[in-house]
Fold:
Amino acid sequence: MHMPFNFKRAILFGLLWWLIAFITISILMFLPWFRDVELRWNIAWFVLETPLTLLWAKAYFKTDAPHIIKGVKLAVTALVVSVILDAIISVSLFIHSYQEFFGNWVMYIGYLIFFVLTIYAGGEFDATYTKEEDNVTSN
Structure:
């Protein structure tokens, strides 16, 4: 079974996901309760990241038939885009040290959450999509 995957669309998905994450984290960092307490805004981001990732992936798979393999490809593509944008923009504007930025283990938790949930979305939505397709063809 051949499943075409639209890499251009996946790159755009990754770019827009990075922008959503960048804006959300920037807002969290400067809210009075989170300011100067990195752990608080990291936890808040992880809590927000879960529904945002699932909703964003669901939007992606609305126009592209979902499949767990597509979820893996989407997750990898989006993460590569995110790492590149973080290296170019986040490090140069805010941290000024690749070692400090990419040495922060908490960031990898966010990457892992995104990776797992995007793959899950491809598989979970695949089951829903397939079920709907089976109902249509059996009627």
